[in-house]
Amino acid sequence: MNSKRTTILFAAILPGLIGLSCVSHVPVLIYWLVGLIYLGLNVWGSIFVSSRFFLPAKCRGTQSRGSIAITFDDGPVRGKTERVLEILKNSDVKAAFFCIGKNVREQPDLAKRIHHEGHILGNHSYLHGTLFDLQTPQKMTNELKDTNRAIYESTGVEPRFFRPPYGVTNPMLARAVRQMKQIAIGWSIRSLDTITREPDKLMRRITRNLKAGDIILLHDRCNVTIEMLPDLLRKIKNTGLKIEPLDKLIGEKPYETN
């Protein structure tokens, strides 16, 4: 089920109800119920990027590789991203960093370090504003362009991977992603590290159902994540799962090529 098919379905149901009301009484409540179901499906599709309701999104990799991927959002952040990079380096792990464009502008050296150390850089919008999803498609496109430009000027690579802010999607964002020819990236495990304060609780949430093909969402700006990360990497490896770069897990090239 996606947005187009849902709209077609409900567009067919409505005339049917109107036709039925011409020969028989149809309670107004039925119309309200149909409308609420349609609205509910659109809200559900907006909130959960894994629903792929408005646009295709890569939220898992293939299980056959026996691997998972680790991703970080919202960086780079001075004093925190460096610590994450050191932990990853010590564990010989490559991750994906979905960066906010303005942060790249402010910390180009960190973006360059992420790239030079073999990690993937992705687009996470330019401002990551709370009203991002209410913008016009053109303004969203401009944010994606500005972020790609900032990353390119810092590293010489232009990302193809885009992660929607807050994981929220809608028709306007779908148009912007198509226009930019980006690949939307979601996740299969949302750590909730932005609201969790206890490292043990965070660890349990991530690992209790961990399986091959999972994409883990973390944030390199969160102290609890940094505190827990070395133990998480050890525990994942002890389960027999491999941690590999996101592009390998999903089988997509991370950057534009000329």
Jot down its keywords.
six-stranded parallel beta sheet; alpha/beta; 10 helices; 258 residues; 2 domains; TIM Barrel; globular; two-stranded parallel ribbon
What does this 3D model show about the protein?
- With 258 residues, the protein is an alpha/beta fold.
- The chain folds into two domains: 3-47; 63-250, TIM Barrel (Alpha-Beta Barrel).
- It contains ten helices and eight strands.
- Strands 1, 2, 3, 6, 7 and 8 form a six-stranded parallel sheet that branches.
- The mean pLDDT is 95.
Main pleated-sheet profile: 6 strands, parallel
Q: Judging by the overall fold, what is the CATH architecture of the largest domain?
A: Alpha-Beta Barrel
Number of domains: 2
Quick one: CATH class of the largest domain?
Alpha Beta
> What number is the mean pLDDT?
95
Q: Helical residue percent? A: 40-55%
Helical stretch count? 10
Rg (C-alpha, Å): 21 Å
Name the helix and strand elements from N-terminus to C-terminus, one letter apiece. Answer: HHEHEHHEHEHEEHEHEH
The CATH homologous superfamily name of the largest domain equals: Glycoside hydrolase/deacetylase
